[in-house]
Amino acid sequence: MIWAVWAPLLAPLAAVPVARRLAGLLPPRAAALLLAGCAAALAAFSGVSLVLLTVAGLLKLPFVAELGHVRTALLPHDPAFGMPLGAAAAALALAGTAAALRTLLGHGRQVLRARAEVARVAGAGDLTVLPDPGADAYALPGRPGRVVVTAGMLRSLDAEERAALLAHERAHLAGRHHLLLLAADLAGCVHPVLRALREPLAYQLERWADEAAVSAVGDRQVVARAVGRAALAASAAPAGRRPAPALSAVAGPVPRRVSALLGASGGPQGGVWARHAVALSLGVCVLLSGAAVVDATGDLHASVETAQGAP
Amino acid sequence: MTESIRRPAGELEAAVLSALWAAERPLTPAEVQQVLPGVLARTTVATILARLHDKGTVSRTRAGRAYAYSPVVEDHAALAAHRMHTELDKERDRPGVLARFVSRLTSDDEELLRDLLAQPVVPEEPR
């Protein structure tokens, strides 16, 4: 119980950098699924750990012990069975749940508002065009999902590039990418270290949709041009108010996407061996974390049964 | 008439509407057909345009022997677009659910992007 209950809380510290590294070595779809899956699994294990620590701490309270027919004297002298730790775990679990609920509500509200506004504008097929001279485009999830594009965006692209843009947004909707992002956001609520998985996940989802657009229009250069010109148009004529871009020395996601499409760089790199080695260490991290949760749950259960005076 | 015919009707309507918006002037079915990538029969384009007209999404004017179509801009649509932007602006600096086609560019990004776009063999068509 001592190590096992801590392992899932510490695992993200090791697993997150490894997952980020591995994502860079994989094709976009695999990388995105890996990042979202890792975030969800590590968050679930951390959550269970917090619950176990909370329960173990609560059992030290006389009335809870009485309720569970537990004799506190028979509980193991383990720091994990302590009130201060239990209280801290309970506070973290509650804060995490509250943050997760807030995130869930925020996502829901944002989608509902956007859908309500889009419903007022006539569209064709799965496309809604906003009569806005600024350049913007996004996928609006729902059943059915919609592609929302401003008039300004359509005017800054040629016909092939417009087809690429529509294919890209449809790939987001078909792949239900917003659910993967939501999973990563919720994971970040449970364990702050997991927030570092969101940015690479968002990037890989864009790359995934870019590659889907390549399959749809059959030309990497067209998609690269569509992404690049759309981004330049958006920064030249932002839709609505857009705060001034922050200065940064690092290449942002858009140039990386364009170079990946052009095959210049930014695509999956590294040999098969590197990929296997990184994948193996990530697998070990996640499996250990999962095994630790099972072990800690078993330990707690056994301790409680002993303290209940079971034969 | 190969790949386009297999696409769902919704995607064809979307392609036609985006072509009309991009044009900034009324287009006849023949012009729309020329603009759309992929081979699409003129009658198909005409049918789609007539359907969009029935729905009130596009308006049409006589242009010689054909009709020329342009997208209808409703007053409340412009208002909705504006409200949506104020809404989205509030969310913009927080991670949101709406996957945008392109994220914000830094000035370095812009320079890098122009370089990248200048490289490909396919020239950028003047616009």
In short:
Chain B: Keywords: DNA-binding, Transcription, Transcription regulation. Chain B: Pfam families: Penicillinase_R (PF03965). The complex is a heterodimer of chains A (311) and B (127). Chain A is mainly alpha-helical and 311 residues long.
CATH superfamily of chain B: Winged helix-like DNA-binding domain superfamily/Winged helix DNA-binding domain
What is the subunit organization of this protein?
heterodimer
- Which sequence of strands runs across the widest sheet of chain A? 1-2-4-3
Tally of DSSP β-strands of chain B: 3
- In total, how many beta strands of chain A? 4
β-strand amount of chain A: under 5%
Overall mean pLDDT of chain B stands at 77
Order of SSEs of chain B = HHHHEEHEH
Percent helix of chain A, as a range, is 55-70%
Binned, the helix content of chain B reads 55-70%
Q: Which chains share the greatest interface?
A: A-B, 89 and 72 residues
Structural class of chain B: mainly alpha
Dominant shape of chain B? extended
Mean pLDDT of chain A: 84
Q: Give the biggest sheet of chain A.
A: 4 strands, mixed
How many discrete structural domains of chain A? Answer: 1
Number of helices of chain B: 6
Could you please describe the fold and organization of this structure?
Chain A: Pfam families: Peptidase_M48 (PF01435). Chain A: Its cofactor is Zn(2+). The complex is a heterodimer of chains A (311) and B (127). Chain A is mainly α. Chain A has one domain. Chain A has eleven helices and four strands, in the order H-H-H-H-E-E-E-E-H-H-H-H-H-H-H. Chain A has helices at residues 2-25, 28-58, 62-67, 83-119, 151-155, 159-174, 177-190, 198-217, 220-236, 253-262, 272-307; strands at 123-124, 127-130, 137-140, 146-150. Chain A has a four-stranded mixed beta sheet with strand order 1-2-4-3, sandwiched between helices. Chain A is elongated and about 75 Å long. The two termini of chain A are 21 Å apart. Mean pLDDT of chain A is 84; it is low at 241-250. Chain B is mostly helical and 127 residues long. Chain B has one domain: Orthogonal Bundle (Arc Repressor Mutant, subunit A), CATH 1.10.10. Helices cover 55% and strands 11% of the residues of chain B. Chain B is built from six helices and three strands. Chain B has helices spanning 3-6, 9-23, 29-35, 42-55, 75-92, 107-118, and strands spanning 58-63, 66-71, 99-100. Chain B has a two-stranded antiparallel sheet. In chain B, helix 2 (9-23) packs across helix 4 (42-55) and helix 3 (29-35) packs across helix 4. Chain B is extended. The two termini of chain B are 28 Å apart. At the A-B interface, helix 4, strand 1, strand 2, strand 3 and strand 4 of A face helix 2, helix 5, strand 3 and helix 6 of B. Strand 3 of chain A pairs antiparallel with strand 3 of chain B, so a sheet runs across the interface.
